[in-house]
């Protein structure tokens, strides 16, 4: 998937290289002048993500270490114009990610280490606040809430960490904030953006043993992360 994304991004860069002189030049040719007057428009996005856990422990002990990795995003965009500078956006997408957890007080790597692979179907509802357009660019801020279904949660499994099975809840709720810039090219609008996501709820399913060395010290384990998305309208 990453190879496919990089290939598409390279093709896009080759195709649009000549156009950027017109976008950022001293006297740019105005592209897609009436694009933002549409009541509704659609698009899609590709991007990267980096998820992590914010872990709060219920007593003083060695910390559980959480290491993030780089994942891949792909999805659709539906945009509804509410006002000249305000849009409502729905951006359902598929997010692949992995987090690596290292638990303290174990003598071997097999027990101490857990790979937490997650595949989220993400449903964000966002408000986009745009500045006035300047030539062929238009910066914006966005924020909102979302819910996500974790297809890799193992929530219904009877086995737990004693059988090398790390469990998380299926549904998670988030709030999101970010910023980006709309770049108007000759035939389409390109919008790179960066967004932070923060979970409202504890996602850890405790082990069957209340004194589990993996989960008994955890007060809450909440997802946090950031996305870098490239949107095409």
Q: Please state the average pLDDT score.
A: 88
Shape: elongated
Class of secondary structure makeup: mainly beta
- Specify the CATH architecture: Beta Barrel
Task: Provide an overview of this structure.
The protein has 233 residues and is mostly beta strands. The protein has a single domain, classed as Porin. Helices cover 10% and strands 53% of the residues. It is built from three helices and ten strands; from the N terminus they run H-H-E-E-E-E-E-H-E-E-E-E-E. Strands 1, 2, 3, 4, 5, 6, 7, 8, 9 and 10 form a ten-stranded antiparallel beta sheet that branches. A hairpin with a 4-residue loop joins strand 8 and strand 9. The protein is elongated. The relative contact order is 0.20. The model has no long low-confidence stretch (mean pLDDT 88).
Concise structural overview:
The protein has 233 residues and is mainly beta. The protein has helices at residues 2-16, 20-24, 109-112, and strands spanning 40-57, 65-68, 70-83, 86-90, 93-102, 113-130, 137-150, 171-184, 189-199, 218-232.
């Amino acid at each position: 998937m990453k190879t496919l994304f990089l290939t598409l991004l390279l093709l896009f860069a080759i195709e649009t290289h000549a156009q950027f002189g017109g976008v950022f030049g001293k006297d740019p040719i105005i592209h897609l002048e009436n694009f933002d007057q549409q009541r509704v428009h659609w698009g899609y996005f590709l991007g990267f993500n980096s998820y992590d856990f914010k872990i709060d422990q219920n007593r003083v002990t060695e910390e559980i270490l959480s290491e993030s990795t780089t994942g891949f995003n792909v999805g659709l965009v539906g945009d509804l114009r509410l006002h000249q500078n305000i849009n409502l956006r729905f951006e359902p997408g598929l997010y692949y990610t992995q987090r690596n957890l290292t638990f303290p007080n174990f003598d071997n790597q097999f027990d101490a280490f857990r790979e937490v692979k997650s595949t989220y179907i993400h449903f964000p509802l966002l408000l986009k606040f745009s500045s006035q357009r300047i030539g062929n660019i238009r910066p914006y801020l966005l924020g909102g809430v979302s819910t996500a279904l974790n297809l890799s949660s193992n929530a219904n499994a009877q086995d737990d960490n004693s059988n090398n099975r790390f469990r998380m809840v299926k549904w998670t709720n988030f709030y999101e904030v970010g910023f980006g810039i709309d770049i108007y090219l000759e035939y389409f609008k390109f919008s790179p953006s960066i967004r932070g996501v923060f979970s409202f709820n504890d996602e850890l399913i405790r082990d069957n043993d209340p004194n589990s060395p993996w989960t008994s010290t955890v007060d809450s384990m909440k997802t946090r992360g950031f996305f870098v998305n490239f949107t095409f309208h």
